[in-house]
Amino acid sequence: DHGHAATVRVDVAEEEAIYEAVRHTAATFGRIDAIVHAASPPLPSVKIEAARYADFEPYYRVYVGGAVALLNAAVPEMTRGGEKFREPSRARLSSMCSPTWWATAR
Fold it and tell me: Is 52 buried (19+), middle (13-18) or exposed (0-12) by CB count in 10 A?
């Protein structure tokens, strides 16, 4: 048995929706081994001299904030696997445009 996978559609701009999706997934499968955050809203099409932070805030909220909220929700579920889970458990947050961050629980 190679395990099971599921896709879960969730608005990662809504923190409570993330927690609900993680709870539902953990309840359905009994544990969470991996998560993939693939949400990336389109960047606004503005001239750089006219760009304001507010133009990009929705992108940062989904792309960065959603990833951090997803880790906050999922890591406790990933580490509560007990004997079913291979130790140590590890969550990885990486991006093509940022350094890789690791959260390890032992």
Answer: exposed
Tokens matching residue 104? 């390890």
How many angstroms separate the CA atoms of 19 and 1, rounded?
28
* pLDDT value at 66 more than 60: yes
- Give the tens place of pLDDT for each residue, 11-22: 888 999 999 999
Give residue 44's identity as a one-letter amino acid code: P
Place of tokens 């390890």: 104
Helix pair 15-29, 66-79: axis angle to 10 deg: 30
CA 106 remoteness from chain centre: 20
Q: Which pTM value belongs to this model?
A: 0.69
